[in-house]
Specification:
This protein has a domain of 81 residues: Jelly Rolls (Sandwich), CATH 2.60.120.10. The chain is built from five helices and eight strands; from the N terminus they run H-H-E-E-E-E-E-E-H-E-E-H-H. Strands 1-8-3-6 form a four-stranded antiparallel sheet. A four-stranded antiparallel sheet has the order 2-7-4-5, with no helix packed on it. Strand 4 and strand 5 form a beta hairpin. It is globular, with a radius of gyration of 14 Å. The termini are far apart.
Length: 123
């Protein structure tokens, strides 16, 4: 993966090149069709996902609570808090996501700090 792709996602923007390159070595890419459930409420949370293209519906208790699109992240609350998933996430358009695990994040301290602040804002 080219680090310039990551830098288009706001939480990666402005990170040092060294950290972007390290993130690329850990990052996994996935393509997901419209309508697919990506994560389920109550499941163990060990990955967070950055939306590169497409959109998702976030559903808590069966009700839509948020729509997320390109450049946004989901799964950070569970990964940062070491908790279970607090919502279902369903693709509402063909989706391309980039995922990192909790363990990957530990090797990316500046990104981990940004995600902690982001998760606190959403709480």
């Amino acid at each position: 993966m080219d680090p310039s792709r990551l830098s288009t996602i706001p939480l990666f923007d402005g990170l040092p090149q060294e950290e972007l390159e390290r993130a690329c070595t850990f990052a996994e890419e996935r393509s997901i069709p419209d309508g697919q459930v990506i994560v389920r409420e109550g499941d163990f949370s060990d990955k967070l996902s950055f939306i590169e293209e497409g959109s998702v519906d976030v559903r808590h208790g069966g009700s839509s609570v948020a729509e997320l699109g390109a450049g946004e992240v989901f799964g950070e609350a569970g990964v940062m808090g070491k908790t279970m998933r607090n919502a279902d996430v369903v693709a509402t358009a063909p989706l391309r996501i980039i995922t990192l695990t909790r363990w990957d994040l530990k090797r990316l301290p500046q990104l981990e700090e940004r995600l902690g602040a982001h998760a606190a804002e959403r709480a």
